[in-house]
Amino acid sequence: MKTYNVKYRDFKTLQLYVNSNDIMKYNNILVQVFSGICNKEFINEVIRNLKLLIPQCKIVGATSSGEILNGDIFERECIISISVFEKTIIKSILVKDNISDFSKGVKIANCLISTDTKAIISFGDSSIMGEELLNGINSVNDHVLVAGGIAGKSDPAYETYVFTEEGVEKNAVAAVALKGEFLNVNNGSSFNCIPIGKEHEITLVEDNIVKKIGTISVKEFYNKYLGTNNNDQILRMGNKFPLMVKRNNRYFSAHILKFINAEEALISTKLDIGEKIRIGFGDLREILQSAKEMYSEITRCPCESLLIYSCDSRKNIFKKVNAKEIIPFKDLSVGGFYTFGEFNNVNNKNMFYTETMTVLVLSEDVNARIKIISEIDDEYSYFNEEDSALYNLIKNTGEELNQLNIKLEEKIKEKTDELEKQYYTDKLTGLENRNKLINDLCVEKYTKLTIIDIRSFNDINDFYGNTIGDKVLKDISKLISCYCNENKLNSYRVNSDIFAIASSDIAKEEFIARIQFLQNEINNQCFVYEEGKIFLTIVMGVALEEELLFEKAEMALNYAKKNKELFQIYREDLNIYEGIKENIIWTKKIKDAIAENRIVPFFQPIVNNSLKTIEKCEALIRMIDENGKVISPYFFLDIAKKAGLYKELTIIMLEKTFEVLNKTNYEISINLLLQDIMNSEIRALIIKKLKKVRNPEKIVFEIVESEGIENFNEVTEFIKEVKKYGSKIAIDDFGTGYSNFNYLMKLNVDYIKIDGSIIKNVHKDKSAEIVTKTIVLFAKELGIETIAEFVSEEEIYNKIKDLNVDYSQGYYFSEPKENIG
What we know:
eight-stranded mixed barrel, Thrombin, subunit H, seven-stranded antiparallel beta sheet, alpha+beta, 821 residues
């Protein structure tokens, strides 16, 4: 084989060249056309003339930003490279279909590659994404070497084209395949830009348009590192300072083709979000040295023909100093062109590169070799030792800094991973925690979830102590974890004595069967600690293939606990969600009522049974709705407690009741829960009000009777403090729950209010009568007065008078009213 390279002038000069070299005698002829004249009519003329002169030839070509002929570079010329083969078959294709670039590559490979196909030479116009095209070819066959590149142009106003003997096209790919048992194909490449500085991450990209590097735009990035925000300067400097990305352990460059707007840039190579880039530096001396090394390698390959496909940026770099890295070819017949991105085969992998000079080496004679002159050293001797030293300084310090930065990032990642593990791991049990469960649910990792509660676990802590309680939690977590590992389940400790089990890999019925088996195992097991035997009971709430999986499993658990069940699967007909919606509605109503001053005290009179006169009243909380309707605390008080609004209601009632106290001679009682007494803010407010009110002896604090009241030192201290001002104390709802006569003697109370559940039956239930009589007798002995609540009819009133109850309160006398008297 042999390649003839000639500058095209016209039909006659081409005819003379073809005839003088006796080209027509060959049957297998490949003609490559590299046209710096980006005119479609001109290119069509060239193709017509070639088909007339060499009708048997296959043609492939592209417009160029510069043309290579032997050892010289041209612009706006047309170079024709004619390769004649004796034993190689040539097949061409022009893909102009409206399909993706990847699909174009697939079509080229399917049409051109067969047994003994050794190489493909392909050109795409500037609209083609070279990387996608190569990916398409490689997806069919990644063993055939691909050479060529993307069409260029020497003036921004020009169009780019590719063509074969079939015609000239835009938005297309032209390609030829070389097939032959005796064809030897090799390639060489020269790059040698060096990465400098630290790695940066691509954070926002769309197609080939890079929008963000790290936290800043492309323009800000170049302004920061190259000291200019002028777009034209950035484009020019991009040739010498390209972006460099590392793939397959090899750096290659990407440069800006143009700015899309003020901040975003079209890049020659597709970069992905998350890829790391560094700024590159192209040093002329080192680039030439790299070229020299490539030439040395070529001389060892079978070679009868050389074709060069080199990046436009290299032409621009050397053009400034009138330098030509292709000088060693000046005595050889070599053709090629400058591209907007070139195809290169490195380590038997076809990849899309920029900033690179690639050389395709062809030969049908395994023994053929070429001799390349060594003038490259003499031609550019003005690159002195200082240049070399500066290059090495930049290269080595840059690499050292980058390695230091990588090590630092590794340390940061190691620490971050450690902190993340701590954030997602329960310290006591080693199980993954609530944070991890919520995160896993957010990414829809699971479709089935059960939440597990250890019933009455606080009793274990209270009775055995926290040390034993922690041992119980560790042992049960080990049991749950081991079981889950064996049964394709995932376990978590949500908090305290709450665990969770999740899965998405097994059917619903199997999931239920497995967690119920675990529940039976735990509920039937005896845990022994320091000779004490502990039996646990766990309750499970389950949600299956639901939205809001965690919330609904929690609803099912609460429903089970409320209804004293051990196992409950969430269902819509449980109406759990309706209750929650109702709570949300009422919470908003309470907040609005607080904000709009619609929480008010109503007053219910308390009658002296001996004198039949009203001497006292009780302040009772009411809400006035938007329409003026009075709302009983039955509808909102419990919800206020759960919503954390109860303290605000207590403060409002205290403020407004003390205001009324200054305007009346009635004794007024106001209810306090233990949580009110134990709240320092509430206690401080009460003392402040007692100091300012003109008749503090007229206020009575009704403490709601509750379990364990005698254990609260705060209560006795509170009573002592308010009694300094003459205020009185009543125990409300006495006679139910955990009534204890003993603490009455300790608390120094003034009134006992007998619970309405006893009083409402006192006239017809002997037990209620006896309880009432007992309370009254005990109170009389201690000098404590009694008040009967819920006196709703005359018969009850008469009965409590007979039992010597001192006061009565109820609807028989009056319902609670807005005003006293």
